[in-house]
Hints:
disordered N terminus, alpha+beta, Barwin-like endoglucanases
Amino acid sequence: MDWIKTTWTKAAGLLTLAATAHAQTPAPVSPTAALSGLSGARQQMSQASVPRVFAPTMPRMTYSRYPWKTDIVATVFWIGEEPSANNPTPNTKSSWDVNWLQSYGGFDTPDATKRTVNYTPTSFIPKQNPFYLALPYNDVIDSSTTKAEARIRIPWFGQRYARPGKSVVEGQWVAIRYGNRVCYAQWEDCGPFVTDDVEYVFGNARPKNTQNHGAGIDVSPAVRDYLGLGMNTKIDWRFVDFNEIPDGPWRTFGSNNPFVRARSAAVANEKNVLASRLEELRRMRDEYFRQTGNAQYQNR
C-alpha cells in the first residue's frame, strides 16, 4: 500500500506542476481541470473583442538614452489610405512591406464610428499591431542597401543589424505623449513627406518637413483615439526600450508584436509541458496496474 500511495502522490504532483507552472503555491488538480485551465487560457487570448480598461500611463520624465522630442505636430495616416492632395503617397504599402495592406489584414479605417473599443476596425481583427506610426527616416535605400550613416546614427544598430537592406528601425517602439496620457506604438513606415531627416529623428534638430504645419510624425487611428488627438495636434515622442512598455492595448494584436509572439510561445510551451506530464502520468498508471495485476495473479 505504501508503494501505491507514493506512486499516486507523484502522479498528482506532476499534474500540479503542469497546471500551475506560474503559481507560487500550487495545489493538486485533476487532468480534466488542468486541461480546462489550458483551454481557458487559449480562449482568453482569442476573445480580442472583449473591451479592456487601461489607466493612463506616464513613463519616466527623463531618460538619458532617448530624450523626449517636444511640441511635434502629429498627423494621422492609416493602412490602405489612397493618395490625396494632403497625402500623395498611397499607404497600401509601406517603406518596408510592398504588401502592407494584405499583411495588416484590411483597410484600417479612420472613421471612429467604425472602430471598436479595442482600437481596431469593426470589420476585421488586424493581423498586425494597430498601434503604429511613421517617422521621416528610412535606414535602407533598397532591399540590398543600408544607408552609410545608419551604422553611426542609430543607437541600436549593432544589436539588430542582420544584412544590407534589412531595416533595423522597423518595429521599434515609440512613446507618444499628449497631456497626461502616453501611448506606445511601433515604427512601421516612413514619413510624413520625407524619409531622410536623420538629424531630427536621431539628433536634436526640428523636423525639416514644412508641409501640414511642419508635421514630424504620422500616427495610426488607434494612437489618435487612445490619446484623443485632433487635427495637427502637437505631441511629444521618444524611443523606448522594450522593458519600458507597460500593459496596454498596444500589446494585444499582431504577428509583428513581440508581446503577442511571447504569449503564443508561452501557451504553446505550457501545452507541451502539460502533454508531457500527462503522458508520464499515464505511464505511471499503466505501470501501477501492471504491478498490481501481477501481484494478484501470483497470490492466486
